[in-house]
Amino acid sequence: MLILSFFVIIFILFGINGFSKSRPQLESVFAILNGQNPSVSMNISPFASLLPEKKFNIPIITYHYVEIVQNKDDFIRERLSIKPDTFEAQLKTLKRLNYQTVWVKEIPKIVTSNKNLENKPIALTFDDAYGDFYTDVFPLIKKYNTKVTLYVISDFINRPNYMTSSQLTEVIKSGLVEIGAHSVNHLDLPSVSEEVANYQIVTSKESLENTYKIKIETFCYPYGFYNDKVAKMVQDAGYTAAVSEVANTTQSKSNLFYLSRIRVGGFDSVIN
User: Fold this and answer.
1) pLDDT per residue over 23-36, tens digit each?
2) Using one digit for the tens of pLDDT, what is the confidence trace for 114-137?
3) 56-270 falls under which CATH superfamily?
4) Cα–Cα distance for residue pair 20/183, rounded to 1 Å
5) CA distances from 24 to 14, 45, 66, 142 (A)
């Protein structure tokens, strides 16, 4: 088997580079077979693009409200909410099953490392920065030392029902919360002009960075809506990743700007 592998490698090197260009690599092959540590590294990069892309199972859970909804006629809020005790039970489940919470901004490094996962990463994301994040979520993530990512609509800070600037400052100082951008006014970006979409993407990042003296690395598409042009704008604006509403738990280098997420209602179906 070793001899067969050796000749396969020789065939690859000859076919790609020709004998003269492949000689250093061939010397490395002989060195490896002799148990040596070659000074010349093998380079067969032309085959890299033919290898299947490595995919990672990293659930990203989407939350909106964590509260007991008072107005039962508010059907949208009711549909997007879970109760605080339900959220706490989920945090306990993650601890019991040895999941490791990560920020979304850590996912690009995970999927580009090309290493096998040594743990069970999961990202908990909260859209819109509603006031209940501070009153109901924040105490629980401190209790369980849980990392979360909070996506903030930059122009909605200090509005009724949303977090205040002082509350955001406090959660940032906790060291548990990644702040990501969620546009300026929560517009459906593919439906507006490119100029408006770019303004929403760039200005939300700049505003949060300048106000809170932090680095904003990831973006959340309002309503989960995006297209190729919008995704390219996000990348060009300096973000390293963006989350969508594509329902899946598989992440890879190719979908860094439309990372898959699972709505909180599907929590039990993806945690094991």
Assistant:
1) 334 343 333 333 33
2) 777 778 999 999 999 999 999 999
3) Glycoside hydrolase/deacetylase (3.20.20.370)
4) 55
5) 12, 15, 61, 55
Pure H helices in 34-164: 75-79, 84-96, 107-113, 131-132, 138-143
Model-level pTM? 0.81
Give 162's strand partners: 130
44-67 pLDDT per residue, tens: 334 444 567 889 999 999 999 998
Calculate the CA 181 to chain-centre distance: 13
Per-domain residue ranges for the chain? 2-50, 56-270
Three-state DSSP state, 125 = strand
Torsion on CA atoms 174, 179, 184, 186, rounded to nearest 10: -110
Contacts with 135 (C-beta within 8 Å, 6 or more apart), sequence order: 67
